[in-house]
Amino acid sequence: MSASPSPYLTQESEYNLSEDVVTKITEMAASFPEKNSALIPALHLIQDQFGWVPPPTIKQLAQLLKTTPNKIYGVLTFYTMFNLKPVGKYHIQICRNVSCSLLGAKHIIDYLTKKLHIQVGETTADGKFTLTLVECLGACGMAPVMMINDKYYENLDEKKVDQILKTLK
Amino acid sequence: MIQETKVLTRHENVSGMEEVENYIRDGGYEGLKKALTMLPQEIVEEVKKSFLRGRGGAGFPTGYKWSFLPKEKTKPHYLICNADEGEPGTFKDRVIMEHDPLLLIEGMTISGYAIQSELGVIYIRGEFKWIAEKLECAIDNARRANLLGKNIMGKGFDFDIVVMRGAGAYICGEETALIESIEGKRGQPRVKPPFPAGVGLYDCPTIINNVETLACIPIILQNDADAFKRMGSFQSAGTKLYGISGHVNKPGLYEYPFGTNLKYLIMQAAGGIRNGKKLKAVIPGGLSSPILKADEINLDMDFDSCVKANTMLGSGGIIVIDEDTPIPEVALTTVNFFVHESCGQCIPCREGLSKIQQILTALLDGKGQNGSIETMLKITQSVNGSTLCPMGDAAAMAIQSMITKFREEFDTLLK
Ligand SMILES: Cc1cc2nc3c(=O)[nH]c(=O)nc-3n(C[C@H](O)[C@H](O)[C@H](O)COP(=O)(O)O)c2cc1C
Ligand code: SF4
Ligand code: FES
């Protein structure tokens, strides 16, 4: 990442929940017997809007769900799918669990780090790709497997990885 | 040759099954139609008679679980469908949800009627976003056709379903952690008892069943309990989805009668070992199940036979490992997973597993110390039975089985 100021210091106005997200969160809260059940769905919606969960949005969410930012933060940090800092335009999450390892996940991971010139956990300098390792994605019969943003890519090999990356502008 | 019996996966290669008309044209909703002419208690009895056992891993008889609800309904009852599908090696529930979402929805509606619930929640792993959307679409379709919502089929029964996506925590597949997660909390298992059938979601009586379990309910109702029993083996009725991954020629999902032989599944159904290699080991029921050696796979894949063979049927996720694979490496991947997923509440699970991780990492780096294998075994024994949820135990047993059954490979690392 470049030397941008800590997200905790950024202007809140940059991170206003969109009207659409607020409506959806309110609807979600109404579909459960208790409001708090909308918390995890709401965090997904926020991440869909910003690509991560910016701290100022936590305050807004706390007000919507009548809870405290601290409680939300405790939940947010428990779940690995929520990004606590910005990620690249394309977030590559590659499975390193047993079935994928047996069919060469390690090789694909090495190939990606070389191709993108980053280590696992890093984002490319142009902000385009972030590479993360994850546990089993529930696609073991199609190993090795990765996810880019919301989409699954299965039965990977070097050639397939090349083709996939080429389509991502 | 054993015939593949496609019941739950019969629409695997058909599209459009989220449309009510297509599903009904193929016999769908006959089960619900029949169920709504019966008393809830009669359905519970029929499910008991069918010998249906939970497909989420533990194999608990479904009808009996349902009958643990309070006799008098004083609070709302909730039905939760466990679609967390987190157990490594497992990719089965997604096939039902992707290709036959209304089968699950019909199953939940019948189950909701049987347990007198008005709300069902499908808790699906967060990564399956497109599947969650498909389920939502199918739910909308069912609502429009008066098959969900108020006064279903004009029979005075109200029931609805909401879909909620998890967010990448394996432990949320454990039923009480899952309830916490639906309540908007960290997914940390609760102390049991009380069991969810008494005190569950929002402290109300709650039934939690796996996707595959709930998808069997319409099949049982359409015909009857006996027809369902005849599809499986004596103790384990119906069919089973077996996911086969790893070093086989044809990895994939296979549906066979419950109790089909493991050797048959690997060598025939999945086409045997890749590249003409020999088999070394098999993890038969997801990563939590103890490993088997190549000469132990003449095994009927049902709950009881697996227990007799000191392993578990678990989720039916079969991971096949060939002769070229070092088991200590598999063990490290396994322990890395469990350390990553431990919710941190119990010391043996949190500390014990990461100690094993340290020792094993050192061992594989050529920095093992004398006695370190014994230390790992001792830790796995100390986890045994001393944790809040079954994860700590399962992880310990899985690792212990790899060390004891392939001891010489670990010993070699010390030389
Ligand atoms: C650590 C852990 C993870 C689990 N993960 C799942 C899962 O992903 N899916 C599932 O259906 N059951 C899972 N279970 C089992 C559930 O706790 C529960 O027993 C099951 O959903 C009950 O459904 P059934 O009676 O239909 O089998 C898990 C259990 C543990 C201890
Ligand atoms: S055994 Fe592990 S995962 Fe289960 S409650 Fe204890 S610490 Fe959490
Ligand atoms: S092990 Fe990679 S998807 Fe399951």
Strand content of chain A: 5-15%
Poorly predicted runs of chain B are none
Cα radius of gyration of chain B in angstroms: 22 Å
What is the total number of structural domains of chain B?
3
- How do the strands of the widest beta sheet of chain B line up side by side? 3-4-2-1-5
Q: And the CATH topology of the largest domain in chain B? A: Rossmann fold
Low-confidence residue ranges of chain A? none
Note the overall shape of chain B.
Answer: globular
What integer is the average pLDDT of chain B?
Answer: 97
Distance between the termini of chain A: 20 Å
Task: Count up the domains of chain A.
Answer: 2
Any descriptors?
heterodimer, A: 169 residues, alpha+beta, Glutaredoxin, four-stranded mixed β-sheet, B: 415 residues, alpha/beta, Rossmann fold, de novo design (two linked rop proteins), 3 domains, five-stranded mixed β-sheet, 17 helices, 10 strands, 42% helix, 14% strand, binds flavin mononucleotide, binds FE2/S2 (inorganic) cluster
Describe what this molecule looks like in 3D.
The complex is a heterodimer of chains A (169) and B (415). Chain A has 169 residues and is of the alpha+beta class. Chain A has helices at 19-31, 39-50, 55-65, 69-76, 98-102, 105-116, 158-167; strands at residues 90-95, 129-134, 146-148, 151-153. Chain A has two domains: 7-78, Orthogonal Bundle (Arc Repressor Mutant, subunit A); 90-168, 3-Layer(aba) Sandwich (Glutaredoxin). Chain A has seven helices and four strands; from the N terminus they run H-H-H-H-E-H-H-E-E-E-H. The model of chain A has no long low-confidence stretch (mean pLDDT 93). Chain B folds into three domains: 20-229, Rossmann fold, CATH 3.40.50; 239-322, Ubiquitin-like (UB roll) (Roll); 327-412, de novo design (two linked rop proteins) (Up-down Bundle). In chain B, 42% of the residues lie in helices and 14% in strands. Chain B contains 17 helices and ten strands. Chain B has helices at residues 20-25, 30-35, 40-49, 62-66, 93-99, 101-114, 129-144, 175-182, 211-222, 225-230, 262-269, 303-308, 327-341, 347-364, 372-383, 390-405, 407-414; strands spanning 78-83, 119-124, 149-152, 157-165, 206-210, 239-246, 252-257, 279-283, 292-293, 317-322. In chain B, a hairpin with a 5-residue loop joins strand 6 (239-246) and strand 7 (252-257). Chain B is globular and about 75 Å long. The termini of chain B are far apart. At the A-B interface, helix 2 and helix 5 of A face strand 4, strand 6, strand 10 and helix 13 of B. The structure holds flavin mononucleotide, iron/sulfur cluster and FE2/S2 (inorganic) cluster.
